[in-house]
Amino acid sequence: MKILVADDSRAMRMIVIRQLRHAGLDDAEFLQAENGFDALELVRREQPDLILSDWNMPEMNGLEFLQALRSEGSDTPFGFVTSEGTPDMIRMARSAGATFLIAKPFTPEGFRETLEGAGVFA
Q1: Quick one: CA torsion of 101, 105, 109, 112, rounded to 10 degrees?
Q2: pTM assigned to the model
Q3: Helix or strand (DSSP H, E) at 31
């Protein structure tokens, strides 16, 4: 499985990857991007199986990234990993085509449950 993690914080990307490995995805190949533009290019080039993105990033935020991805016809499972999980954000994310939203702080168990519930991890 190839997983793209997009977040402007390198430290947060490392935390997310570590949590995913602890959730049972230790054999996955992880790709990293620091903004939506870079992430969109990686998706085009690498065709990941799953995308996890922060909401707030410079240059192209997570919602803009998701909208661009969906407008190109991609149906790759996409989830937000963000510190803001307001009902409005959840509605916007879902209407844009997000598969799930994981609010910080998170745990490996939370990741596993969310990914299983979304049907992207068995």
Answers
A1: 20
A2: 0.93
A3: strand 29-33
Whole-angstrom Cα distance, residue 70 to residue 64?
A: 10
pLDDT of 88? 87
ω into 48 cis (within 30 of 0): no
CA–CA separation, 112 and 25 (whole Å)? 9
CATH of region 2-115, choose from 3.30.70.240, 3.40.50.300, 3.40.50.2300, 3.40.50.2000:
3.40.50.2300
Residue 65 has pLDDT above 80, yes or no: yes
What secondary structure, in 3-state letters, does 2-17 show?
Answer: EEEEECCCHHHHHHHH
Helix (H, G, I), strand (E, B) or coil at 63: helix
The H-or-E segment that residue 80 falls in is strand 78-82
